[in-house]
Structure formats: structure tokens, C-alpha cells
Amino acid sequence: MSFDLNDKMQEKVDLKQVESIVENIKRKYEEKGLSNDLESLRLQELRSIISEGKRSQIEVQKPEELSADYNKGVKLIGKIYNSFSSFFSLFSKRILSILPGRNELSMDLDSANINYSTAQYLAITSVISLILTIIITAVAAALFAVIEIPQYYLVLVFFVAMFLTAGIVLKYPSIVAADRAKKIDAELPFALRHMATELRAGIGLYRVLQTIAIGEYGYLSEEMARVINEVEQGADTKDALKNLAYRTRSFSLRNTLNHILRALKSGGNLSEVLNNTANDVSFEIRLNLESFSGKMNFIGVIYIFIGIVIPVMLAILGTIRNIPLGGGVSLFASLPLTPTMIILLYVVILPICLIGLVMYIRKIRPTY
Q1: Are both 204 and 261 inside the same structural domain?
Q2: Fewest CB atoms less than 10 Å from the CB: which of 22, 27, 261, 271?
Q3: Could you tell me how far CA 190 lies from the centroid of its own chain?
Q4: What is d(CA 257, CA 125) in angstroms, rounded to the nearest whole number?
């Protein structure tokens, strides 16, 4: 019988169980003296997580609260936002809403374990984007003055910088989530064999999950700690594992959790399932390493071409183009290699190409 976490799970949600979990957490909130409004919002979010399997759209934390954040940088951003809240709010609603990745931001924040609400992160993005845009425009203005480029191009620079910086900051949670997934994949085979060994020794699944949570398995231990925290707050172990499967970007971990849940439902041998899954994950890691080696051979050729061949060619052609000799002038006069263009190529365009290539290598590089 197939069990797909991406569907609505075909089975009905036990609302009594949800309410029981909610009541347990409500009692803990009351013991800690938390406000009823905050408690109500968090309980609504919990109901959504359990019954729908996705992060709630309810904003528990507001942008105005950033000024009281423990992080000094975020605290400063919060103060700037509060000083011009109307402007930044309009910016986030009008500009950031049209950028790609905006609709997935809530899930990306959850997957990356970034503890800010969607509204708060949009506020952070707005402030950082506009500050960086002003800095980039100022640097461009100074550079344009030196190489004699018309200043009206600064308008184009301003808008390109604004959308580019906003897009990068908005994409950051997705990048972090993907990086976490790679590092989880690297630790997963060892953790699965650890779990299989303890299960064969007769230790219960919850105790095994606790062992992984306190073990040295990097982000995997962190995610298991979140699972344990949900269970201690009253959630069922299966529901907590389902939530982990929804939020993680690691395909291997999601597939493993599918197998675990299926085995728990059908009564299969969980230890054997985990061992087989560990072998599959190890095989996928070897394939990824071989694929990366093949890509690096081709990327190395491109790197040499951009970093050595093109600069040398530009230097030779630019020198010939600008030497005031008859034959050279008539033959290469059509080349747009003026001193200004050569400076632009060496100072801006080629470094950007090399930086982009290095970033691409870092993106596809396995972290095993």
C-alpha cells in the first residue's frame, strides 16, 4: 500500500488528537505565563501544521518586533524599518511581491530553520536591498565619473541593483535550505546505520530518535531535535516525522521518512528498512561524486578560457587597436576596444564572470 506524504494522505485527520495536543501545549503556555493572544496564534499554527501538513500563513511575529531581536544586525535593521515603516511596507508589498520565490518563502524559512516570520523576513529584505542599492549606485556614480560614462545610466544601475539585491536576499532561505539538505544527506547513511543497530538491540524508536538528536550528525541532529521537541509538546511521533518530511529539502531524508512511516503502519522490520535505505543513500552519494568530477573537467576548461585566454586576447587586440600606426588602425579600428571599454572588461565584466563560475562550483559541489 503506497504512502505518499505529498498527497493529503488519504486518511482523515484525527481532530480529537489535534485538540489534545493543542490543550497540552496550552497548559504549558499558561504555566509559563505567556499571553493568551500569542498562545492562540501559535496553537492555530500548530493546528495547521498537523491537519494540513504545511506551514501556516498566520504571522506570529511582526516586523516591528525586529528592533528587539537578539542579533545586533537584525536589531539595527528593525530600528531602520520602524523609522520608515510606511515606505518599507509599501516596498515589500509592491516590489518584493513580483519577485520569484516570494510564494515559497514561508516554506523556505521553515526548511532553513530561520526563526523569522514571512512578514519579518520581507522587512529584512526591504531594508538590506535598499541599503545595498544606495551603496552600489554611489560606487557606480564614482566609477562613471572616472571613465566618463553618462550619469543618466545610474537610473538603470539603481533599478537593476534593487531587483538583484532583493532577489538574492529573498532567495537566501532557499539556498540555506538546499545547503542543509546536502549536509543532511552526507550524515544520513551513518545515522541510519546507527538507528538500525539500536533498533536491533531492542531500543524503541523514540529513544533512537533522541540518540540521533543528541549525536554529532550536524543538521540532521538539529532536525531530529525539532522532532523530539514536537513530541514532548504532545504530538504523536508519526505526526512529528511527517512534519519533518514536509519541511526538509533532502530527498533522501524524505524518502527515508516515507519508508519509516510505511514500516510503522504495516508492521515491517524497521531495522532492515533503515539498513537498506542507508545502502541506497550511499550509492547515490557515490553517483553524485562521480557526476561532479565529470562536470569539473568541463568547468576547468571554461575557467582557463575566462581567466587566461580572454584577458590575454583582450590585451593584445586592445594594444593593436589603440596604437596610432597606419596598418593597425585600419585593420582593427572597428573593434570596440577603447581604453574605457578595456577598463570596464577587466574591472567589472571578467571578475563578475569568474565570481559567477566560482559560485556555480560551490553550488554543485557535494558536501560529503
Answers
A1: yes
A2: 27
A3: 24
A4: 33
Q: Is the dihedral of CA 310, 359, 72, 217 positive or negative?
A: negative
Q: Could you tell me the three cell numbers for 80?
A: 531602520
Structurally, the chain folds into a number of domains equal to 3
Q: Are residues 213 and 105 in the same domain?
A: yes
Specify whether 123 is located in the same domain as 214. Answer: yes
Confirm whether 3 is domain-assigned.
no
Structure-model confidence comparison of residues 75 and 42, the more confident one: 75
Same domain? For 95 and 39 the reply is no
> String of b and e for 247-275 (b: at least 16 CB within 10 Å)?
bbbbebbbbbbbbbbebbeeeeebbebbb
Query: 105-112 and 153-200 helices cross at what angle (nearest 10)?
Result: 50
* Cα–Cα distance for residue pair 51/227, rounded to 1 Å: 16
Structural domain including 22 reads: 11-60
Question: When comparing pLDDT for 6 and 336, which is higher?
Answer: 336
CA distance 321 to 257: 64
**Residue given cell 535598499 in the structure block:** 130
Q: Give this prediction's pTM.
A: 0.68
Whether residues 87 and 160 share a domain: the answer is yes
What is the per-residue pLDDT across 166-182, written as a single tens digit (0 to 9) for each? 989 988 999 899 889 88
